[in-house]
Amino acid sequence: MGEPVSLAEGVNVIHGELRGRFPYAHALLIQDDMTVLIDTGAGDRPLGSVPATPDVIINSHFHADHTRGNRLFPDAAVWAAAEDAPAIRSEDEFVTRAGYTRMGPGRARLMLDWIEHAESRVDRELAGDEVLELGRRKLRLIPAPGHTPGHLAFYLEREGILFTADVDLTSFGPWYANPGSDPDQFEDSIRRLAEVPARLIVSAHKGILREELPRRLEMYRAVIDARDQRCLELLARGPATLGQLARHWPIHGRPLQPGWLYGTWERIMLEHQLVRLQRRGLVRAGEDGRMERVAGA
Ligand SMILES: [Zn+2]
Q: In angstroms, what is the span from residue 166 Cα to ligand 1's centroid?
């Protein structure tokens, strides 16, 4: 953490507390005729030192580590993708979409307190895939669903700066543990972002990246394939229920504590992974409800 870091004239990264680790995230401030702050989960102290007051906040998606600080800028308009807007406005909608109801009694409140969730108005619902004229520069919105349905990335064409939000390039991702997440969409989004001729990426949890951007994106995408392989190897031993598969942690690769949190994420991501493998014709649900490999596939 520290002072905002300038990437180009009028473009600053606001580094999140805990070096941007969840429940914090890095943010991007773009000062132009219209000043835009992308994401507000950096923490109260970093957000208190932004070099200009935003006219507009754009939340990359509905997660609290990207929306929590909207309340710090009461005069700013809040924009977000139409798909994610309901979960920014409503705590109940957030809890459902975040899958907290699956973590056991009392856990939703525990999670909401930990992430310091705060409801926010959304003044404009974005369609995605549009270019915003900020004044001297254009900000291209790039739909990048998979992490959440309305997840957006952002490209400043003139500066070659790509804000990938939670296509975050961390070793923990790609993360698709919401009931509405989708690893196939996530994979398509990574590929779409790899086509952007960026000279620099800002990831919400990894920060500023300048080197080997296409290779890093491809390695990140390949993690989804590695998870496919671990599931297929387990199923090569014979049919198994989702619970039996989850006990081997094929998504995270190793057991993580606390189990009520990471175990729930493992199960949700495993469900999505098995849907992905079924779409590819590699796995099917047997008559007894157990998952099995498709012979010859
Ligand atoms: Zn997120």
A: 5
